[in-house]
Design goal:
Layout: E1 2-3, E2 10-15, E3 18-23, E4 30-33, H1 43-51, E5 56-59, H2 65-98, H3 103-115, E6 118-122, E7 128-132, H4 138-160, E8 168-173, E9 176-182, E10 194-199, H5 205-221, H6 232-242, H7 247-254, E11 265-272, H8 287-297, E12 301-305, E13 308-314, H9 321-326, E14 329-333, H10 342-359, E15 363-365, H11 379-390, H12 401-413, H13 418-425, H14 429-443, H15 450-460
Parallel strand pairs: 4-5, 14-15
Antiparallel strand pairs: 1-4, 2-3, 6-7, 6-10, 8-9, 9-10, 11-13, 11-14, 12-13
Helix pairs in contact: 2-3, 2-5, 3-5, 6-7, 10-13, 11-15, 12-14, 13-14
Length: 470
């Protein structure tokens, strides 16, 4: 006798004192070999199978057992192939739905179609946010919502107790099979979201696979930031800026939830070298490189303009310099600053980038002078001295006082190296020499004198806009 075994109920049949045990639920049929023990199928077995609606097959004497097994394994392989094909189709449909503008409703619709069930996205208060498919009776819907709320409550208690929170739960109600799957929630949010499913048939391997894919996609779509896109906080901040709010008012919205009061920012300036022929480093706004760069900088606040980069890193930066270098980037980082000092930090990052380009280092940090002569002088007197010292440059003709000051600053920062200064400013070394000569003439001083260089370096740090105001 041959039986395909299921996983739910047992069927007990006694024939002439011998006990035959068949797993009833899920069994496709029962095959009975009439030889050599029996000449015909026992009537008691026929009656038992009829009573339990289990198909009964009489296997002819000439049929070898290996043929039955081969047919069974072939049928199982065909069923497995069919399942894999349906899983692939479901995955493709769900992925396409996730790329639509109405991604969440579209994913729920595709999941409902492949499950033949009602699918719903539920918030922490048990509210139906989006749903798709045939709606069940009100009592069934309410029980599903209640199950979702209970599961989320247990999830929050488990997190508070530092144990593994439940991720799914199931119940039966009036012929409906109810399941819920929790989606990861954002820190500080009111709670996670839940995917609810109300079906009238037992889940199959295809249903389970489709539900798993849908859960992952919905988790990404409801995460604070996915694929380096923007979340509601970013969009809200942009709207406020466009409507006239100041950066200082908007910046707290963009900082992480666990950032301390008066959170700090680091400004990043970058330059990407053009790859050599055959290089694998992409150029332009390649989304893969953009995602990799955002990961290396630990931020999604990136601004690319050709081969130039400006970025904002909230909180203390965790920069993967090696990853940025592999992508072809040279970076300059400012010191951590408050929002009101972002313009100064941008200047710091730009100068750090110039130093990095001149020295060949992949990343250069702005060097703060916490213990220096700047800390023991009166700020007002130092600023007045700086303005007076460089006042003669105000009348300079082309290239103008700003260019001359920046050339002097870069030259002094790079230890008066003509070649490194030319590299940092992307000009010819003779242009650097000419500009420094102009500065020396206008200031009527000898820039080759170390004492004069020290005085000029000190004064440069106290020009308006150079230092952050306490």
């Amino acid at each position: 006798m041959l039986a395909q075994v299921g996983d739910q109920a047992l069927l007990f049949v006694e024939v002439e004192g011998d006990a035959f045990v068949v797993v009833g639920a899920g069994a496709a049929a029962l095959g009975f070999g009439v030889a050599p023990v029996y000449d015909e199928v026992p009537p008691d077995l026929v009656t038992a199978c009829e009573r339990h609606s289990l198909p009964l097959l009489r296997v002819p004497v000439a049929t070898p057992f290996v043929a039955v097994g081969r047919s069974l394994y072939g049928a199982i392989a065909d069923a497995s192939t069919r399942d894999l094909r349906q899983i692939s189709q479901a995955q493709s449909a769900l992925a396409s739905a996730a790329a639509r503008p109405d991604a969440m409703p579209a994913v729920l619709h595709q999941l409902s179609t492949h499950l033949g069930a009602w699918t719903v996205l539920i918030d922490a208060q048990g509210r139906d946010l989006f749903s798709a498919g045939p709606r069940p009776a009100p009592a069934v819907r309410q029980q599903l919502l209640d199950l979702a709320v209970r599961t989320m409550s247990r999830s929050r208690l488990a997190r508070a107790g530092r144990t593994q929170p439940p991720t799914a739960a199931a119940e039966h109600h009036a012929g409906s099979r109810l399941t819920v799957h929790t989606l990861p929630g954002r820190e500080g949010s009111t709670g996670p979201l839940v995917l609810g499913i109300a079906a009238t048939t037992p889940p199959t391997v295809v249903h389970r696979a489709a539900t798993g894919v849908a859960t992952v996609l919905l988790s990404l779509l409801t995460s604070p930031r996915h694929a380096l896109g923007t979340d509601s906080a970013d969009a809200g901040a942009l709207v406020r800026l466009m409507l006239g709010a100041s950066p200082a008012d908007v910046a707290p919205v963009l900082l992480p939830a666990d950032a301390p009061p008066g959170g700090r920012w680091v400004v990043v300036r970058g330059h990407r070298a053009r790859p050599e022929a055959g290089s694998s480093v992409p150029v332009g706004g390649d989304p893969v490189q953009l995602a990799a760069l955002g990961t290396a900088l630990s931020t999604s606040y990136l601004g690319l303009d050709g081969d130039a980069l400006r970025a904002l890193v909230p909180g203390a930066p965790s920069i993967d310099a090696e990853a940025a270098a592999r992508l072809g980037w040279t970076l300059g980082l400012s010191a951590p600053v408050a929002t009101v000092d972002l313009p100064s930090a941008d200047t710091q990052a730009e100068r750090a980038l110039r130093r990095a380009l001149a020295t060949g280092e992949p990343v250069v940090h702005h060097r703060a002078e916490e213990q220096s002569v700047h800390g023991i002088v009166d700020a007002a007197d130092a600023r007045a001295l700086a303005r007076a010292r460089f006042a003669p440059l105000d009348t300079a003709a082309q290239p103008g006082p700003a260019v001359l000051l920046e050339t002097l600053r870069t030259w002094l920062a790079l230890h008066c190296s003509w070649d490194q200064t030319a590299t940092a400013l992307q000009v010819h070394r003779n242009t650097v020499r000419h500009r420094i000569g102009r500065v020396a003439d206008l200031l009527e001083t000898d820039v080759q004198d170390p004492d004069v260089r020290m005085e000029l370096w000190f004064a440069l740090h106290w020009l308006p806009g150079e230092r952050q105001q306490d």
